[in-house]
Amino acid sequence: MLSAENLLQAHPLSATAERGEALARAVEAALGCAAACTACADGCLSEEDPARLSRAAAAAESCAAICAATASTLLRQSAHADREGLITLLQSCTSACLRCERECREHELMHDHCRLCVEATTACVEACERLIALL
Amino acid sequence: MLSAENLLQAHPLSATAERGEALARAVEAALGCAAACTACADGCLSEEDPARLSRAAAAAESCAAICAATASTLLRQSAHADREGLITLLQSCTSACLRCERECREHELMHDHCRLCVEATTACVEACERLIALL
Amino acid sequence: MLSAENLLQAHPLSATAERGEALARAVEAALGCAAACTACADGCLSEEDPARLSRAAAAAESCAAICAATASTLLRQSAHADREGLITLLQSCTSACLRCERECREHELMHDHCRLCVEATTACVEACERLIALL
Amino acid sequence: MLSAENLLQAHPLSATAERGEALARAVEAALGCAAACTACADGCLSEEDPARLSRAAAAAESCAAICAATASTLLRQSAHADREGLITLLQSCTSACLRCERECREHELMHDHCRLCVEATTACVEACERLIALL
Q1: What is the pLDDT of residue B38?
Q2: Domain C17-134 in CATH 3.40.50.1970
Q3: N or C: which end of chain D has fewer CB within 10 A?
């Protein structure tokens, strides 16, 4: 896959150095989290006993939608002049990840898709918080 | 089109009365704004002189992505227990709308798609702020 | 909500007459279907017995993603020069709607969100097929 | 980033062997292409002379929306029973990628974001065609 760092640096308004690196990590984490959540939600619904997994599936779907919008906004560097808007979006992304992580953690020993989802949401929270600190 | 109010009331966790009505207005406003922004961005790029409209197009694309994620999250009522997350998402939606509204207002006399985009972003800001006040 | 017809006519490449009207109906049907499917999927997962509804929820989530991309592409009239691409997209949208409609029809007497989803997918299939016939 | 192969294999309905590998490549190619197109579209609009790049930006935005929906559908393995629907979606994804690749190729010597977009769309077309051949 193309690296987010290359995509961000090819942009005429590209951020530099430390912040650029944190931005690239956040893009990759948000994209990876959206993918893991989408796969996990559909995985939950395809298990033999989906009833126990319904809250995890719902949290994962919400998280996927917000992570995808976050990744897209982070890649649109013309939008970054609106610092407040970027920070609130990253905060809402963090909130959605934390909720999904809580739900999937209850099932991570039983279901690999939940374990991967916990990994992805944890990584996304860290990457968003690190980026917020640098904005 | 199906009314958002019907969709929201058919949900087992449906909100009631005043808040349910504000929620329905916010869903419709965010969906309408995502559509207006998508149409406006592509309209800007298809005009004879797209150079003057490039900032409006970029702002509209960002706004469309955030409004679509907001509408989707508002429709997923299982996600509303995370009040903080919902409020930050609505705030980031408001930010994106205000930025798009500023850019498109400069062109609303020349281009109908910008005028419709100003209307849609203004309505979305009002609906999001009203909903935030009730959460 | 802003009418799709107004949004489409404000575009410099707007289609005219019969085809423009079919395009507007397809945009509204696809947006409405994406909203109904999102609400229904989350509704299914929030019911007391989500196990029976897991296939409906999964079909609704897939359908929502494809309907949203279809609506967005229909609103971007600069993309319509690629007639083949537009037709295959409308066909994949129709496929996703038919699958979701089959799953939700089994539950429409029990759950209003499934009934609204059946209505929305049926309307979306009709609007897509009518538009395909005019492309 | 989490590998698509791991995400797909953690799903209870995971495909096996050759097809699973082609599926993983298509997911990664479509996600990477959506990201490259989003970054390129915003990059085009942020260049000093966006007028020449407006067609590339419009093609990239359409392509991003379809690639994102394609990746999401490929990750939802419960949807793959609808083989016809999956094939038409992959075909519409291929169409959108080819159109974007044509537009961005005209600017790839001048703008790195267009060059990366050409790479990403080319890779996505190949991955989609290889997957279609195995469905």
Answers
A1: 97
A2: no
A3: C
